[in-house]
TrEMBL record:
<dbReference type="InterPro" id="IPR036148">
    <property type="entry name" value="MmgE/PrpD_sf"/>
</dbReference>
<comment type="similarity">
    <text>Belongs to the PrpD family.</text>
</comment>
<dbReference type="Pfam" id="PF03972">
    <property type="entry name" value="MmgE_PrpD_N"/>
</dbReference>
<protein>
    <recommendedName>
        <fullName>2-methylcitrate dehydratase</fullName>
        <ecNumber>4.2.1.79</ecNumber>
    </recommendedName>
</protein>
<dbReference type="InterPro" id="IPR045337">
    <property type="entry name" value="MmgE_PrpD_C"/>
</dbReference>
<dbReference type="InterPro" id="IPR042188">
    <property type="entry name" value="MmgE/PrpD_sf_2"/>
</dbReference>
<keyword id="KW-0456">Lyase</keyword>
<comment type="subunit">
    <text>Monomer.</text>
</comment>
<dbReference type="Pfam" id="PF19305">
    <property type="entry name" value="MmgE_PrpD_C"/>
</dbReference>
<feature type="domain" description="MmgE/PrpD C-terminal">
    <location>
        <begin position="287"/>
        <end position="475"/>
    </location>
</feature>
<feature type="domain" description="MmgE/PrpD N-terminal">
    <location>
        <begin position="18"/>
        <end position="265"/>
    </location>
</feature>
<dbReference type="InterPro" id="IPR045336">
    <property type="entry name" value="MmgE_PrpD_N"/>
</dbReference>
<dbReference type="GO" id="GO:0047547">
    <property type="term" value="F:2-methylcitrate dehydratase activity"/>
</dbReference>
<dbReference type="InterPro" id="IPR005656">
    <property type="entry name" value="MmgE_PrpD"/>
</dbReference>
<dbReference type="InterPro" id="IPR042183">
    <property type="entry name" value="MmgE/PrpD_sf_1"/>
</dbReference>
Amino acid sequence: MHKVRVYKSEENLPREDQLAFKIAQVAADPVEVSPEVEEMVINRILDNASVAIASLNRGPIVSARGQALAARPGPGGSGSTVFGVDAATKVSPEWAAWANGVAVRELDYHDTFLAAEYSHPGDNIPPILAVAQHMGATGKDLVRGIATGYEIQVDLAKAICLHKHKIDHVAHLGPSAAAGIGTLLKLDTETIFQAVGQALHTTTATRQSRKGEISTWKAHAPAFAGKMAVEAVDRAMRGQTSPVPIYEGEDGVIAWLLDGPDARYEVPLPAPGEAKRAILDTYTKEHSAEYQAQAWIDLARKLHREHPEFANPENIEKIVLHTSHHTHYVIGSGANDPQKYDPTATRETLDHSIPYIFTVMLQDGEWDHVASYAPDRAQRAETVALWHKVTTEEDPEWTRRYHSLDPQEKAFGGRAEITLADGTVFTEEIAVADAHPLGARPFAREDYIGKLRKLAEGTIDEKELNRFIEATENLSSLEAGDLDLLNVTAAIELEKAQGGIF
């Protein structure tokens, strides 16, 4: 546990005591990756590919891909691949990180970690993989880099809250991706230290991207952080330095963007020689929606089967979802966003509205990443009528469990209280999603592959998909130059991007 606070300039905090330097030390530590961590890295590469494939012709991806394809690789390496595009077409690694990062995030359908801050640690994979391809790294190098990216992002999310100060959660992603790239390339501690500082400095932004009318930038935000991480490492390798101390300085991130000059944090990081295992604390999504909606979707599915009468708004007086502070204020009625009850709202807004999500699952009994958000689905009269009867309330016990450090107690669900038209009150609760490691049906390798096959249907030829799955499952045996095998070529015509400057 590393104590972190703000220091005045005259206190002259030694470099080795700065959080960015401690992160760099972890990244530079050549500790071996355990078999279970490697197994989960493979699962998450499969998971990222599945959600990226499902979004290949959505607007933000088309735009980001168009920008990336205009950026050919320079002389420093062989270039990187872009999801859906034939691997023979290479682009500069920072732009591959951008395009692939947008594709992975667009549907809000990959892995998550929730603690003091929330995160999607799978966002580390596109920038680390892009650099690995460009620089001719091996599969083992890639595994080590991804393990570091997950470790640093999870450790920062455990200790430092960003959303309380309306700072977007990608502020933890810039440093983690830079650290992961440092591990991948076997860089020295000083170089990684400078890269981490630059990556943090360039990726702090406000939470307005996830508030009110949510725009297409929601998918771009983590991709931008990944792109900045690649550029930060490049500059650090060229001898360029970063603002120091970036976290603890009196004009630094903590003092002015977070808890202020009196802030105190304790950040957990692996000791020297200790394995990086944080990826095992993360969990993926069975459903395409914000993670805190996962358990509620599963509960609504159960209620749909057992109480189909709940789907009829005429039978319901009100539904109150008692849940954590975070769920109530971010995706619940506590956000005070009228858009969360607007039938014409964007998909990006609806997937952050638990009243909408719970209603649709209660009525349909199944969740689809496209159909469940379609305008005609959102605007259905009986849906709107029931939707407007659903609210959330914070429950202190569910808030406590949300923040618990005990994985056996930590929970992301709550208690549904359904008052029927005749006055009868029905209650049922759920702690974690079915796919959670402690849930009813924890995700395993076959589930990741099943999710990939489902989302790739009609988009990727089966032979090509089988090739990709085989390459990914044999990740550690991939030699230098083989990492292009971790790309897939779409069997559909990819849409052309609208013209811009590039």
